[in-house]
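Hey L., structure's done. Input below.
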Amino acid sequence: PSSMPSSVPSAMPSLAPSSMPSSTPSAMPSLAPSSMPSHSPSLSSEPSQIPSINCTDRTGQWDINGDTRNWCFWARKDSIVRCPTRNLIVECPATCNNDCVDPPTSGPSNAP
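Output:
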């Protein structure tokens, strides 16, 4: 490998990368991802369009400490107290998480 990039591309790629990257990015993206990840994650000033929280409560009944019931329905009656008391935030995100927003649906709405 060379210590300095050349100003004219070679006909054959080198067997190893140069010790100094070029000062301008290539015009075409590579066909495959790099074998080594970057040292730091990329940062975005924009939030993702779809929240990473699943906003659908668990349905049906399940057991917590020997009590069987539909816990999400039970928590709705006083979610501020009941959600943390029974640790229902993961199972009942729509009931227990005020920041939970369902992702937008695609396509037209059939609502009147």
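The longest strand covers residues 62-64. The chain has a mean pLDDT of 77.

-- N.
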